[in-house]
């Protein structure tokens, strides 16, 4: 795995560049991502390009033995450009324009802006596509950051109408699919359909789901336009410059599997401490992992994004110290930055790049740490990057081994649950994350895969939930020989957001003969205990009534069915709490003959084809039975297999 950093030569005097480059190389870095926000410097006036500074910056880095990852600057259109087409900005759900003065102030559907993007990307590709220092292209930066996937602009509304016409053919078909007879919502033409915002009460969930699908398609096609241009300017010597995009953490607003298919390397931006603070974790977890991050946060995304673009992935931005954007921004424990780096390698990353080289003393992110402080002295993370580089050099290149467990992840499922949660604590990402975490706590390596993935070689398959079951999925599961777990609400909706004929789990009744006759959501604090002999689980958040000839495998204390099994397939009719997940994983692993580990709290294992890595995320030393050794906080153990 290579190391790198995110660098903004345009932020620093040119006289500093050569020394920066020298220090990067000396630190063990070999990749430098640049350029992704530099439009106002690349084209200070409409049509007047200024390549000189970027030429010199790239040459300076190259002369120090570094390669560059060059970003297209389309996340930050300059003021002059916005002023030429003020309607290019996105409109938020409340109808307000998202103005100039930060970044991502564009609507994915605006054709004029898309043309400008094609123009600047073409100019950049013509200028640097052949450059020997070019190691990778990055399209844009973090699609969707700052809540920018959905836009309710005129451009979006009109593109949505075209999208609907292509999907449904006639307004009558759309009315039928959405059930628009309800509340007299029928349309006579596609021109009458607006985006689903500013309605008096909730809009039709089918309308929302299609709007989300449409918005996701717009992100994918926006990205594809850049990919096509960059590919067309590939080096004449036949070298293929891979293309990446840097995805975000805990972010499901567009279909990353779709975008991932168009790029070569899925990268993501890893801020474990910020994510712990900003997401659903309990106060106890936030305290216990304050300076380390929850032990599954980074790993979950590593495994998710590895499944997004054919296995090639990396970390484009690695948190190096306190960030500036969470509610509270603690500093990592000494050792954590190196640990996060090595953990990415253990999950098969081809690069980890720190964000950023030097902390900026100005503008929005001046409180965000870098590898260097604003005065150019080494920040704490600099030493950790060096330490990680030394360890990586010692173990050599790592190959990913196929994991025994597949966890099925669906962006459409996230939208479907988000549009109609039915109980406020039914959160898709949390459900999947908890399943992932339960697997990892038993030492299992996991591949997080799309619903259309080939599942044949896995030894256990978990589908935390999949409300809309794709064509052929039920048959695919039925053909497997390994244990499969289906979570609640799987098969509960059709493609057009209806309850399936014959009720849930719809098509999956081919795989397991049961019918969900009623569902209920439970407020926080309600916990119906499971039957005594069954592992101490409780039913919280969500439960389903099931009609079936199958006798339940697990029941609650009142005798209501909780889990049903039919051959190799299980259906869990409740929100599975940690105890229930642990119990089900134990049973499935036993059936599959997969060995489990007993890991102490906070420690995790991950294997490549050649090495086993053990990490300690706990803030105290832990004794790790399979190593027969104690690991200090924020430390690791690496053994050749
Ligand atoms: C990312 C973004 C970077 C920077 C960073 C700060 O979301 O891509 O440009 O803002 O966060 O943590």
Give the gist of this structure.
The protein is α/β, with parallel strands linked by helices.
Structure keywords:
641 residues; alpha/beta; 8-stranded parallel barrel; 7-stranded mixed β-sheet; 18 helices; 17% strand; binds beta-D-galactopyranose
Kindly describe this structure:
It contains 18 helices and 24 strands. It has 641 residues and is of the alpha/beta class. An eight-stranded parallel β-barrel has the order 1-2-3-4-5-6-7-8, surrounded by four helices. The protein has a seven-stranded mixed beta sheet with strand order 10-9-11-12-18-17-16. Strands 13, 14, 15 and 19 form a four-stranded antiparallel beta sheet that branches. It is globular, with a radius of gyration of 25 Å. The two termini are 18 Å apart. The mean pLDDT is 97. Residues 141-142, 145, 269, 271, 317, 323, 325, 355, 365, 368 line the site of beta-D-galactopyranose (GAL).
Topology:
Blueprint: E1 2-6, H1 14-27, E2 31-34, H2 39-42, H3 52-63, E3 67-71, H4 79-84, H5 111-128, E4 134-138, H6 154-168, H7 171-178, H8 205-232, E5 243-247, H9 256-262, E6 265-270, H10 272-278, H11 283-288, H12 297-306, E7 313-318, H13 336-346, E8 351-354, H14 380-395, E9 405-408, H15 411-419, H16 428-441, E10 446-449, E11 460-463, H17 473-479, E12 484-486, E13 515-521, E14 528-529, E15 538-547, E16 554-555, E17 561-566, E18 569-572, E19 574-575, H18 578-592, E20 603-607, E21 611-616, E22 622-624, E23 629-631, E24 635-640
Parallel strand pairs: 1-2, 1-8, 2-3, 3-4, 4-5, 5-6, 6-7, 7-8, 9-10, 9-11, 11-12, 12-18
Antiparallel strand pairs: 13-15, 14-15, 15-19, 16-17, 17-18, 20-21, 21-24, 22-23
The structure holds beta-D-galactopyranose.
